[in-house]
User: What shape does this take?
Amino acid sequence: MRDDIYALAFLIGDVIMIVGGYWAGWKFIKQYRNYLLGIEWFIIATSGVNFLVWALRFPEDKEAGQASLQYSVAFFLDAFSRSVGITLLLVVGFMAVTHRYKSSIAVDAVIFTVGIGAGLYLGQSKFQDHVDDAGHHILHPGPATIYLVVNLLTLIFLLYLTKRLWDIGATKVGIATLLVSLAATGIALIYDFFPFPDAVDPLEDRPLFYALALTVWGLQMITYLFAYRALHDHNVRTGPEPAHRGAGAAR
Assistant: This one.
């Protein structure tokens, strides 16, 4: 019964992330021409699709699953987003509405190049999710520290973003942004440093953790779109942004 509940929770969380990523990513591109955020949201949603298909293909055979190309792709996409995507890329993308900074194609290309490099390095097999003979999660201090540091630096920006939302009267969106950002930092800590005990979550599969993580990441995708929209619309009303919505983003 517990396994069935965990499987259902995982499925719901993954679907939230997939739908939220593609929907919000399309909105960023179509309505705001913000390709940085739109493409990153698509990457996260695609990662969710890959994760779901992988889980369905290898429900029991863990060795075959870890030897598959999908497993390596999953860790590459995860490393890309955790190191650069939902950190530097997010900050630069949001600066279109916080600082009226419209990144150039060259800047976008550099950011994605750095992200690909980080994903290839941090997604190496030696850093992938392994367990010891006792079934406990193995900590990789180097990558774990990098992920935590960039997450905390991004959280500072998100706290600033929350204040901006509060100052313009978008209090509900501001509170949602604060809560989902803190939850994401909590997930980052649990991911590497404080895994759930065996009695709560079987560490080899970590189904409960991934159900929570995928749900939080999906809510991030949706909440940050509303935060961006609130700041963009405020800028339109007060003058800094062009009145035509599609012209007010990253180019």
In short: Helices lie at 2-32, 35-57, 62-67, 69-98, 105-122, 141-167, 171-192, 207-238. The longest helix spans residues 207-238.
